[in-house]
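Justification of computing resources. Each target in the renewal requires a structure prediction run like the one illustrated here; the chain below, 462 residues long, is used simply to show the kind of job we budget for.
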Amino acid sequence: MSKLWGGRFSKKSDPLADQFSFSISYDERLARYDIEGSIAHAQMLGKCKIIPAQDAKKIIAGLKKIYAKVLSGKFKFDASQEDIHTNIQDILKKLAGPSADKLHTARSRNDQVVLDVRLYCRAEIVKMMQGITTLQKTILSFADKNKDVIIPAYTHLQAAQVVLLAHHMLAYIEMLERDKTRLQDAYKRVNSMPLGSCALSGTTLPIDRMYVAKKLGFSAVTNNSIDAVSDRDFIVETLSALSVIAMHLSRISEDLILWVTHEFNFIELDMAFCTGSSIMPHKKNPDTLELIRGTTGKIYGHLLNALNLMKALPLTYNRDMQLDKPPLFDSVDTVKQMVELLAKIFMTLKVKKDFAKKAIANESFFTVDLMEYLIRQNVSYRDAHDIVGKMVKECLDQGKKLSELSADQLKKYSPKLSTDIKKIFCAHNSINARKSLGSTNPKMVSSQLAIWKAKLNASFSI
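Resulting structure tokens:
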């Protein structure tokens, strides 16, 4: 087992200390990014004549062979190695001979590891955005198939007003779109190339950082070598974006969990995403959705883990920073899986239209419509609210419906009321009466469905 720093030490490290400090068990997933960075670095060293061109060629050829094995899954990681960097370096030595020893010229593991993680974050942000877009498309398709369905909407989990189911689904799409913009913002700060900062102060050798940045597709290089090796803001920001995504997925899941209950019964969840009970044969539990909801707490924990890790670290690099990867990797893996699962759930989700229709029969959904009827008759908002409030109270006390009140009874509450208010107590009339931009009006919802369809089917770019 080799160590890149062994020359200064005359005694081997304690095996338990090695076991405690080695990171190969989780940073092996950085292998492809480590090699990509090393190839660009070797190309630069050769171009700038810092190492002989022949050595650069041998190094690059060896790295490409390792890279091919990594991509094919045939690369065998040595668990006894300290980290992914030494793992690759040792194999490269066997392939490229003494030339391999020149690869680490003008770089440190400090700037090397942060380069690897930036490359990883950049790639995963793109994948995450693509996954969210797929989820949005499945929700949009579900909304379009059920665009005529009207459901109750809730505040305080109490029946409030009626809306189109498609309008509710469009709210999810808006939430997820904000998630993508947060990822795009994070990507901008991830996309800065740190290699060449070395340990913390740069190098005396005539390197070309812009060349390496161009080779690796970075839009810029870091401006300060101290900040470059000590900065983990981009990880915290990525974890923050993932936490908000998880929060949105949890809220969507909670709606579906409620809607699938016997008490709501608006939707039917495919059995592939449910489990049964070990004691109650009739049960069909929405466990997948519950686990999405529950797992969100873990993602929050990973964000706090990273924040706590960095909160008191002096500049520049500290070994604590090695521990930034497990929360990042697990958050990325978990949120991607949650997004994919929810997309599959929406692909198979069915609406129980008869139950939804029964749920919107309650006339209390239309009290705001009645109040606005009075406002259009030049009744003040405050008076209209009081009038309708009294009507509701007395009808509830007497076991009557608002629509059953006679013309004379209506006049007791206000001379502005007449029996033509009966048309108000209809879900279709209610949603069609909506006029404000962004409302649940069917024409506006149809327009939004078309806009989102075009937007989500447009070519993807970050």
